[in-house]
Amino acid sequence: MNAEPVLTYVYAVASVTPELAGAVAGLHGVGGAPVALLAAPGGPGGDGGEGAEDAEDTAAAAFVVSPVPASHWREEALKAHFEDLGWLEATARAHHHVIQALMDHTTVLPLRMATLYEDDGRALGALRGQRWSFAERLSLLARHAEYGVKVYVRPGTATPAAGTEPPAPQAAGPGKAYLQARRAQHHAHEDRYGQARQAAERIAATAARYATHVVRHPAQTGSLARDDSGENVLNDAFLVPDGQADAFRTAVREAGEDLPGVRIEVTGPWAPYSFAVPPPGPAEPAGPADRLRGT
């Protein structure tokens, strides 16, 4: 009975360290598939022999891979899967789990979900072909982690600044009272957004002291645009050296302490998804039609 054909699913590029093989052992990824390292013959997971002369070029980095059934991962199947929110969530969680599990043991360059190759040989060819670009990116990410910073404008009326007395109430008819209420709403709205601009400026100054790189993501929209404490107006990612992480978090949180109209949220450390832009070429397909290499 013939075994079902499989494809090679690539989670990430990882710097090879003595601890990496142990970290991968027993790890499972998408669909419960076992995770392995794919490197040049003679490198981690290799057995020497023919092609060992290339080991020096690629042994410093390895693909983190799993075998996945071709029938579930070819383009036609993926188009259906991408419309299944349950499948997408489970797959994204499994993909992220593998990457997070390796972060404590090595530098990880995450690749997009559903990065696939026809077989290990073609994946290894991609690793060899992009080795210098991968090495450059891994060097940038080494001993750094990603931190997310979001600014929310709080709903409701802004708290008056210290020392400011509210105006004395005046008798007014319904029309005038309505206009006064609308005017107060407008002023409160402008005040909160002014505080958000102040917070963004302070966060930028903080980033200049601690972070090495920043990526500005669009503010969250739709159902993600608001939470119970307000509207998301800033959604940035920062690459921060491990030794600066505590100081960075403290300084960012302090940026909004005297701004009652905003809330600042700091998350992380995360795998550096925002800074793992891979080089062009076969290492990361651009879309569903290009997901399989070597076809």
Quick structural summary:
This protein has helices at 20-24, 55-58, 70-73, 75-81, 85-103, 120-129, 131-141, 174-210, 245-254, and strands at 6-15, 36-38, 61-69, 108-110, 116-117, 144-153, 213-217, 226-227, 230-241, 262-270, 292-293.
Q: How does this structure look, described?
A:
This protein has 295 residues and is α+β, with helices and mostly antiparallel strands. The protein has helices at residues 20-24, 55-58, 70-73, 75-81, 85-103, 120-129, 131-141, 174-210, 245-254; strands at 6-15, 36-38, 61-69, 108-110, 116-117, 144-153, 213-217, 226-227, 230-241, 262-270, 292-293. Strands 1, 2, 3, 4, 5 and 11 form a six-stranded mixed β-sheet that branches. Strands 6, 7, 8, 9 and 10 form a five-stranded antiparallel β-sheet that branches. It is globular and about 80 Å long.
